[in-house]
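Researcher: Following up on the earlier apo prediction. This time include the ligand. It's zinc ion, with the SMILES given after the sequence.
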Amino acid sequence: MTADDIRSRGESRLADAKERLAKLEGAPPRDRDALLRAVDDLQLALTNIASDISVLVNVHPDLDAREACEAIQQQSTELGVRVLQSRPIYDALSAVSTAGLDAHAARARELTLRDMRRAGVALDPARRAKAQELRARVTQLSQSYARNLRDDVRTVELRASALEGLPADYLAARPAVNGMVKVTTDPPDMAPVMAYSRDRSARLQLARAYYDRARGNIEVFDRLRAARHELAVTLGYASFAAYNLEDKMMASPENLDRFLDDVRDAAREPAERQYDALMEIARRDDPAAKSIGTWDIQYHLARAKDERFRFDPREVRPYLEYRSVRQAILDLAAQLFGLVFTKIEPDEIWHEDAEHFAVSIDGKPAGFISLDMHPRPGKNKWATSFGYKLGVKGRQLPHNVLVCNFPDPKASKGPALMEHAQVVTFFHEFGHLVHGIVRGNVVEWARLGRPAENDFMEAPSRFLEDYIFELDVLRRFAKHIETGAAIPEDLVRRLQAARDFGQGVMTEQSAVQSRQSLRLHDGDPAGHDARTVARAVADRESRFAQLEGSNWPVNWEHMGSEAYAAAYGTYLWSSLIAADIRSGFRNGLMDIADAHRYRDEVLAPGGNIPAADAVANFLGRPYNSNAFKERLAQSG
Ligand SMILES: [Zn+2]
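Model: Understood. Below is the ligand-bound prediction.
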């Protein structure tokens, strides 16, 4: 895929969608089914323009190609808003009689009408035009925000002594020059230092570099928040948060605030105990220590887990080589969900590092996945799952892509060993991918191709994370890189015992960030610097010290994306759902009958039914917060 390929394909798809729109507006089909189909075809055409470029803009090695993606993205957003604001389509859809209409078709219609109202179709022409213009501005600013983060990697020089105690394979890959070692802010490089280096000033130095990234976003984020607010007000909402949360399970800023208060109440006692344990460690290092910095939570948690549970993640690392982890995940998906992966070499690639697989479910072709798993310049720095192509039953097979930054077997000198926490992330992202494939073979309407409530989207992934703590799962692939010995049961038991320790403080921290994301978007941002807003929340709600002079939150990836802007609380919300789903596995996570039921009841319906109904169908009752709170209370 070259920049020219991206441009010409994007332009021909745009032309096709425009033609469909003109036809539909010119003469909307009189027949109900034909109308609904024509609207859905147009929605699918729009989705197909946006899907693959949303991946390519994050992974393509050529700047030229990434810029081509951004240009197509802007045009596709513009066209998308034009479609949503189309009065002839809105009127035709509204006039449809729903008597005897198939439930899924009725839901697709209803959600489409809501999308159209949310885009301003019902406004007067002047305000509709303003909403269109603001939407384009929001897209452009989001792109700048993401670009500034993607392109800013810092390098810090640390004394070799600061890396004492880091894993041997990590050190071997980074030989000292004149007693100094270079460490970048890319996650695989940085995370082990933050967790293991006993040198407090080295950790601080790296944190400062990390939170200084994307300085350009100080201005970009102010403008983005202003444009989001103005858009929401133009559409008739009190704030962008009200607009952003409306179509989610959380539903409103007030609900989200209440939910966060409730979570904080449930986390308070375990968090107090855990914080005391962490402070005790901090005071052993420095008797005058009065606080622990947010950037130092991981380090202190790692030490506490070591002391309490004799659990040292470094002990697990030699068992977690990238390639065997990847294979184990593919095998597990086969066993639990009936997904079988066959490696393929497609014609269309963006970088030779990505691996591609054809997927079948119960023997039938079910789509494709791609794994682009190692860092390189210009690539997204996060771990994300993307839809490269939306699956719609009988029309097109799903293609999902993981974009991660795990150790690279080709680049590292020696085996590419992973942190257990990275393997958890791998499972998490794979959960998104399984979800995309499974529902993409069931759902028949493009509008229902994903659950309507975005704050449900993290639940299947949070749930899958639990598997990498199972003895059954670890025993089958985790072999020592040198001796070939299987991971000892005793080590797995200690890993399990240590797993949830710290969930009290971590949940509180997640609630702090959720509240920051909400406060950054629940009023007119004029005159309210994002850093000041975020800091005020942290000062009120965090137990941990904040990094002085940091540019947080402008280097927070999620703030550039509309899926999370005011809704970072999605992670906690999804954790609550995931904990409840887990309680539905009465005979343990490896129960294949329950796993299939989970696949068919929770994953497969996609947007066909409300997410709450899908969960209730699996559990045999409505979801609640009991399992989530119980797990929190027992987290040490
Ligand atoms: Zn996720």
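Model: The first helix runs from residue 3 to 26.
Researcher: Noted. I'll compare it with the apo version next.
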